[in-house]
Amino acid sequence: MLLDDAADPTSAVRNARLFADEHADVMLGSANTPSTIAMAQVAQELQIPQLTPAPAELPEGKDAWTFRMAMHAAFYTEGLLDHMKRAGVKTLGFLGLSDAYGELYLQALQKSAAAAGITVGPVERFNRGDTSVAAQALRVSVAKPDAVLVVAVGGGAALPHKALKERGYAGKIYHTPASISTDFVKIAGADAE
After folding, report:
1. For residues 30 and 28, what is the distance between their CA atoms, to the nearest angstrom?
2. 3-class secondary structure, 124
3. Which long-range contacts (CB under 8 A, 24 or more apart) does 173-176 make?
4. What is the pLDDT of residues 23-78, one digit of tens each?
5. Alpha-helical segments (H) within 47-148
6. Whole-angstrom Cα distance, residue 109 to residue 119?
7. Burial class (CB within 10 angstroms; exposed 0-12, middle 13-18, buried 19+) of 168
8. Binning pLDDT at 50, 70 and 90, where does residue 122 land?
9. Residue 149 Cα distances to 145, 157, 171, angstroms
10. Using one digit for the tens of pLDDT, what is the confidence trace for 6-18?
11. Distance CA 92, CA 77 (A)
């Protein structure tokens, strides 16, 4: 049985409940963090293993039936901070999703950045459905951090990347692994070179 991978967590829960009626042995999904969190509640309730490619953070005791196939954001963040430190980055802007995925990376950064000698700020957030992040990108650009971390997914990660470039940001732009997609390359185009 396949579930839709809607960004709406209520849709994910409604679809996941089909597993109870079908007596499924395992849940696969979701590929996005908010829906994974919603589905994890159902997996816990029904005691059905859930396999997910999303790095969703779940409260202790609520994650016994959810198995993440992606590394936790803290592991990716360590590598990013190490690279940034070697590149001389001292200040880091954050331009990320205002959902569980964005929060996961922001918390990981805030926990580890100081030890790498990097100050995080400004922090700007946006929603997955936003058609413009011009204001957020402008606030980040004006602050002139040495680098910016864009935390978004697929083609949606191109929007903040392009907005930074359009506002003249000349520093380094980093992304999380979720940006990697054909859509990102097509939409970001030369701005992502």
Report:
1. 7
2. strand
3. 173/147, 173/148, 174/80, 174/83, 174/84, 174/147, 174/148, 174/149, 174/150, 175/149, 175/150, 175/151, 176/73, 176/76, 176/105, 176/149, 176/150, 176/151, 176/152
4. 778 888 877 788 888 889 888 988 989 998 888 888 888 889 998 887 778 888 99
5. 73-86, 100-112, 134-143
6. 10
7. exposed
8. very high
9. 10, 11, 11
10. 455 556 555 555 6
11. 12
The predicted model gives 80-86 an average pLDDT of 97
Cα distance between residue 55 and residue 57, in whole Å: 6
**Tokens linked to 77:** 């963040």
Which tokens belong to 60?
């202790």
Q: How far apart are CA 33 and CA 9, in angstroms?
A: 9
Which stretches within 88-171 are classed as H helix? Answer: 100-112, 134-143, 158-166
Model-level pTM? 0.76
